[in-house]
Amino acid sequence: MATNEATILRSYLLLPARLPTIISLQEFTSLFPKSLQASPQIRALYRDLQQQRNAVVDAVSQNIDGQVRQSKALRREAIKARREAELEEQDDEIEIERMLFGSTSNTLQPKKHTLLTILPDMDDAVADLEREIQAKEQEEAALLESVKQAVGNMSDLRYGRFSNPKLRDEVLDGLEGIQDVCKRKT
Q1: Residue 162 zone, left/alpha/beta (φ > 0; ψ -120 to 50; rest)
Q2: What is the pTM of this model?
Q3: Per-residue pLDDT tens for 87-127?
Q4: How many whole angstroms separate alpha carbon 74 and alpha carbon 71?
Q5: How many helices (H) and strands (E) does the chain have?
Q6: What span, in angstroms and rounded, lies between the C-alpha atoms of 178 and 59?
Q7: In whole angstroms, what is the distance from residue 33 CA to residue 41 CA?
Q8: Per-residue confidence (pLDDT) for residue 136, from 0 to 100
Q9: Angstrom distance (rounded) from CA 117 to CA 121
Q10: For residue 33, which phi and psi values (nearest 5 degrees)?
Q11: CA 135 to CA 128: how far, in whole Å?
Q12: What is the per-residue pLDDT for 137?
């Protein structure tokens, strides 16, 4: 999602969505009967509605931010796929044409970057790499914990320590049941 798309979404979804923009406290109070307009509960009700509305607006803002990140990731994936496709589909004839005639409009031109255009792309790439590293570290920690638990369970089996003291008897009963079934089949 381009920055201007995010700006459009924010300006049309977030700015007019706050409760005071929709209805002021005075207008809200005027909706009640005259005898109740001086009640402090109306102000409390308005503040409660305002908090609920703010929570919804904050959730929409987070969703817009998430869509912006997802859009950037999709754009990078598309660029990466296009680059990989270019590398896979390089044709010998095109290479010969490039050597003979130089670059033409029929051949793909790499995007030229300036300092102003490369820095945001590099910042995005750094952020993506940091997120990937964090995800891999979390995955590694989960796998390490799983392995440690498996090793601990194996150690308990090796030394005969069971978290379930009846496990030994249950296993032996199960094995006897299997032997009985095997004897009946033969």
Answers
A1: beta
A2: 0.43
A3: 666 666 677 777 777 665 555 555 677 888 888 888 888 99
A4: 5
A5: 7, 0
A6: 58
A7: 13
A8: 93
A9: 7
A10: -60, 150
A11: 11
A12: 94
